[in-house]
UniProtKB/TrEMBL annotation:
Domain Kazal-like: 480-535
Designated gene of the protein: Slco1c1_1
Keywords from the named record: Cell membrane, Disulfide bond, Glycoprotein, Ion transport, Lipid transport, Membrane, Transmembrane, Transmembrane helix, Transport
Organism (species): Sylvia atricapilla
Compartments in which it is found: Cell membrane
Name this protein carries in UniProt: Solute carrier organic anion transporter family member
Amino acid sequence: MEISSKEHTHFFSNNTIMPVDRSSFKSESSASKEKQSCCGGIKIFLGALSFVYFAKALSGSYLKSTITQIERRFDIPSSLVGVIDGSFEIGNLLIIILVSYFGAKLHRPRIIGAGCLIMSAGTFLIAMPQFFMGRYRYERFPSTINSTVSLSPCLQDKSQTPLSALEKSQTKINAGCEKEAGSSMWIYVLLGNLLRGIGETPIQPLGITYIDDYAVEENAALYIGCVQTVAIIGPIFGFLLGSLCAKLYVDIGFVDLDSITISPKDVEWVGAWWLGYLIAGVISILAGIPFWFLPKHLPKPESRKDSSTSSEHSKFIIEENKDQRTSYWQQAKIAEMAKGKAPEFSSRLLKFFPSLKNLFGNPVYILYLCASIIQFNSLIGMVTYKPKYIEQQYGQTSSKTNFVIGLINIPAVAFGIFSGGLIMKKFGIGVLGAAKLSLGSSFFGYLLLLSLFAMGCENSDVAGLTVSYHGAKPMTDYKEALFSECNSGCSCSKNDWDPICGEDGVTYVSACLAGCQASNGSGKNTVFFNCSCVGTFESSQSSSAVVGPCQKGNECPKMFLYFLVISVITSYTLSVGGTPGYILLLRCIKPHLKSFALGIYTLAIRVLAGIPAPVYFGVAIDTACLKWGNKRCGGRGACRLYNSSALRYVYLGLTLVLGTVSIFFSVAVLWVLRKRSSPQDETLSASGERDTCETKSRKDNFVNSDRLIQSTYWPEKETRL
């Protein structure tokens, strides 16, 4: 009965259209009008989708730029920041299957619009803790905050409100511990990033397939290329926004900035990290608005009206009579999903395991998958903590670090991706050539990375941590080394971090541990006098010190310049191999398994690289910490000082080890290809026979149309620095 009614409706549709077709001695003006309408609709969608890609890339890169700010604001270690960063991938994975399967059957533009709203909600949620946590507190000696109180930092004189003041202060801190427990609000940042991942999910699969369905076939690739180009521009603005916000104090607008005693160069400085998330959230909302007014279907171009590449739904859509049959088709669709999809689902399920076996039985695919997983572990970990590495290794501010990455590194990545595709086209490179180019890119990229070991800065001279109070490197436990004869008469805490810079060029953990007896001035202009530990290994006279740590050595700015040059060349070199590697992936598998293979590939990269890499990189970086901060209610906070040499070896070493392992797998891929291919096969592949097979496969099954997406995109492309 249902089939019969469908046939009648189809017959009715044909009858309704017949007169139009008969009078299809249609004037040239009406034909051009329809073409213009079609092109106008797809171009509006293209513009809206490009803006969404820009918005999601901007918010994702902005998160990377605020890693150190979040760590300091919430007093959490790098490993926990890694979990927060990986939560985006978890959110994406939660609904990717549902969106990919059911999304194409529903109103795709509105689903993308809803995704933008969810993405903006997540972005706003990340910023919310700033408004509920109270003002940011950093460790500073009282006299640097309030000029009306003049306490001796050393507190040698027992009549000078020494321990009683400290005890009262400690009692006050303990009393506020229940409220301060709200510092666990980093959970909201994690949930917000998870929500961002959920909202971002439908944008790529539904947006690109919509373009592929309704664009003129020869224009589809160009449109998709435009979208991906805009996606690369997004991170540039994301890091530049991060640079701007890092210059502003975290509580700007809520406190008197003249009373702030730290500067952007201080380890405890936290910029207005939350401001960028509010801006990114607003941009996401604006990006989603056009999709609520776009139609579910666009008119098909004349060249594709009878094409079998159309989706299941567009085959039955006739725009001229859509209004008359809307209610009927809604009922038919529900009945079809309820009754007709069960057998189809069962048949697909039966084909799933043989397809999986076929896929994993392909040695080239498996080896390339392993190489990609390990390489993305290397690259994602390196990109996530690159701002932190530059700040700690070269003593740069967060603002300058983000500016450099956004303005220099990311354009190098974009140029590398473009160059890889250009080389492939210009030289007609086939499968074997793509494997060689991908391998060569990785090899020379990691070889360049090896040179960065020689471009580090020495540890800052910090008394009791990197140098002793007598100028020699400490050989014992760092905590014990904080105390010396010169400050033995002072009542100091080894947990404080309130650095001052002595006249001798050495940084002291606090004015008390420097043995300072008096201070003058307030805020950033505070000067400490009669510091018994300052200059003790040079002369017997006591010296003065000023607020804040001393700058790194004179050689450090030069090393930073060398690092930038090598980093940009490395970014470009590694990016050149991205496109050839992906073409290799597409051509090493059977045409009817392409969509399935690409889905498995993306899933594996997200699960085995996107989620774990930031976590274990963070754990490794934490091992290089020399001085941990302390939370107000006890417990370890964020790291205040890293061992520069250890940080360099851990960060670069882990990146290189993973990269080297991935190269071995790439060599294995090349070896298998050489063994299996003949010169004739290579010639056929280079001449484009594969493209013919892909076109035929596309006509057999519209599901394979998403290969256009994948051939120009791979996970984390826009942040491969």
